[in-house]
Fold:
Amino acid sequence: MRLVLGGVRGTSPVADPKFAEFGGDTSAFLVEGSNGEAIVIDAGSGVRVLDPYLRQTDHSSAVLLLMTHYHLDHLMGFPSFSVIYDSTWDLEIKGPRLDGVAASDAVRHILSRPFWPLQLEALGGNIVFTDLPEDGGAPHIYHGLEVRWCPVPHLGGCVSYRLDDPATRRSVVIATDVEWPLASETERHNFMEFCKYPAPPDLLVFDGQFTPDNYARFRGWGHSTWQDAIDVAKLVKAGELIITHHHPRSDDEKLRQIEAEVKRQMPNAWLGRQDAAIEIG
Ligand SMILES: [Zn+2]
Ligand SMILES: [Zn+2]
Structure:
């Protein structure tokens, strides 16, 4: 099982040489199973980075795009996703209904006039939308991988995804946007149970946009600190931790400083770098 980090920047993309090591593109991930299965999670500006990886995968069945939520930093790359213009590919988009808004509503909205020249029906690709099944805890098999999901506390709502590869029993939990300090007892319990079954995840990807020093100023904005990410990883007994959703003002030097402190507390943890391909387990 392999995870490709298309984009790990939070909130808005950054193009600046001082951000080149960790990358400036926003959330997009590709999970590949041991038999060539491929699932994309989120369509931030980093979805462009995933294109060459995705083109190497078997696309005899539809590409599945799982959306965590519809904030712009997770959707702004959709118009640059080459699959949507390619009639030889089929794309299925699945996401939660948040505040009554489904994935199809959100995608249609960002492609509507005057935001984009081509509307959904004119793109050329074969795109279908489906809602997430109601029971997130039951494993649903998509493209040979088991997919589970769990709501997490974030302004406007968000879900995290767990993907298990039945062939190798490897697993990854991806929680891009979550404000752990504001999680209720029930939300904490549900997320921990979600991580626990069928076994603790080999890899946890978790929001660490803020620092313990600046969190008080941004409390209620929807994100955790890198310290929260470590605490959660230890709590759920994750094998490894990748921190994501880096603050758009944190340059490489700042992120390297944070990573050094992270590694002091958890040697098998690091900060995500755009375009990294990580073998899980
Ligand atoms: Zn975000
Ligand atoms: Zn968000």
